[in-house]
């Protein structure tokens, strides 16, 4: 299964020229914790999260309508592609301490944002399914089992 | 294993009379996404999260130093006790759509705050351990296995 299936759709993004207020509004509207800034080609230039709001804005006294999100986003992003496995995506997030990872196509265009929560939930579903399969196989093998 | 072992320690809390700025500062200092408001007896009166900062403050124009967290916290909390299982805690979080659950002792005093992320990670560890046990048992049972 592609990691894109684990991303909330449609993808939460704003133009690179957006204000922090516009980026926050997208997070609120989509009920997500991160939004990507994309350039004119749809390629991710940065990511801005609810954690950034807490760390960089909440106590700053700045008006989010008056400041550009490009000044507060995280640039130089790690990104995943359609070939990235859930395990690789998880390792990247653990290494960087980020909770979100943009997913791009072969041209670098943003397709989705993977959250560590969706990834953890998918891992649980996968492990549970493996356990269920083994239990079914064992009960079929058991003498006199029905 | 008690769910208290899954909580970040020490617990992030502020007095019920704190400002939003003080609550935000505790979240930043402890690197957590939620803080409990406690009364004079140490009992949780509410919870305030980074999502609340995004939803209630970020676009409000309010100064967090000038507003009391009791006005913006979520009161009437679901709470877990030492007897609550991880499964019950998870169900409570899914039902309420909250990502954090205070854990209290028999007197109702706050002991910790359980996050859904820690809970998901613990579930993965548990399932992985179950799978490993089965694989070990099967390889021991296998004819000619070593």
CATH class identity of chain A:
Alpha Beta
CATH topology of chain A: the name is CBS-domain
Task: Identify the strand order in the major beta sheet of chain A.
Answer: 1-2-3
Count of beta strands of chain A: 6
What is the helical fraction of chain A, as a range of percent? 25-40%
Strand content of chain A: 15-25%
Model regions low in confidence, pLDDT < 50 over at least 5 residues of chain A:
none
Largest interface (CB within 8 Å) is between: A-B, 29 and 29 residues
- How many helices of chain A? 4
Structure description:
The structure is a homodimer of 146-residue chains. By secondary structure, chain A is α/β, with parallel strands linked by helices. Chain A starts with 12 loop residues before the first strand and ends in a 5-residue tail after the last helix. In chain A, strand 5 (100-104) and strand 6 (110-115) form a beta hairpin. The model of chain A has no long low-confidence stretch (mean pLDDT 92). Chain A has a single domain (3-141), classed as Roll (CBS-domain). Chain A has helices at residues 20-30, 50-57, 86-96, 116-141, and strands at 13-15, 34-38, 44-49, 80-81, 100-104, 110-115. Chain A binds chain B through residues 21, 24-25, 27-28, 33, 50-51, 53-55, 57-59, 61, 63-65, 116-117, 120-121, 123-124, 127-128, 130-131, 134, and chain B through 21, 24-25, 27-28, 33, 50-51, 53-55, 57-59, 61, 63-65, 116-117, 120-121, 123-124, 127-128, 130-131, 134.
